[in-house]
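Researcher: Next entry: MinD/ParA family protein (Paenibacillus hemerocallicola).
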Amino acid sequence: MSDQAQSLRNLVRTQTDPHARNTRIITVTSGKGGVGKSNFTLNFALTLQKQGYKVLVFDADIGLANIDLLMGISPKYSLYHLLKREKTIWDIIHKGYNDLEFIAGGSGFNDLMRLSEAEVDYFAEQVNQLNGYVDFIIFDTGAGLSKETLKFIIAATETIVVTTPEPTAITDAYAIIKMVHTQGHDHVRFQLVVNRVTDPYEGKQTADKISLVAKQFLNLDIPTLGFVEDDVNVSKAVKKQIPFTIAFPTAAATKSIERLVDRYVSGPAGPVPQNGGVKGFLSKMMKLLK
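Model: Predicted structure:
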């Protein structure tokens, strides 16, 4: 009997268009809830798109999926309909502000963790079609290190950890990094984003606390991607259900996101990791779903 990853191995062998995009997979996570992770994900994606990149956001926050809520959209279909083979991957892609494409997850990700062999193969075949379709697929995971979040972190290779200057947020952000590292997943590349900072000095202090401890006890270099300034316009935008980078294009938080995206695309993130992209992601995910 063929193993669960057989269809994926066949897909990996398939030749792709040499002119297609080299799709990059990013996981965004946090050690605890309430740090603004989903809001960051949405506005990070919109700003990447503003710079000319094509982006797809995958809402992988089980039970608390809210990318659609932040945009005031009620998606008709979700990952659930894909896993039940009621819809294709293209049917469940919705468009939000500035035509940003997203897939609602919700309970579908619970189902993803207990699929049959045939269902996993179908999921892989469908998601593989996104390879080269977009420049970035960004998974907005749940807060904390659940088994579902861990799978996405391991499979995606690139992970942005969002924290705030609060001591509990700092501790929990480090705990995620430590947990992934101590389980032997050394290929995962972490970057830090400190949200709701009063000034760059507070952001640097916060990031340094995590980076120094990670270096001392885990021998890991954790670069800082950037800081997002605390801004009353963010909560105003949430109430309006409009992303703050669109509702308040000159706000301090918007300028912070723009600087952060400039930094991400200009070099510190480095080239696409070897064995990265959609096929690399699926290859790792299939092993984890066995």
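Model: Note for the record: Confidence is low (pLDDT under 50) at residues 1-16, 268-272.
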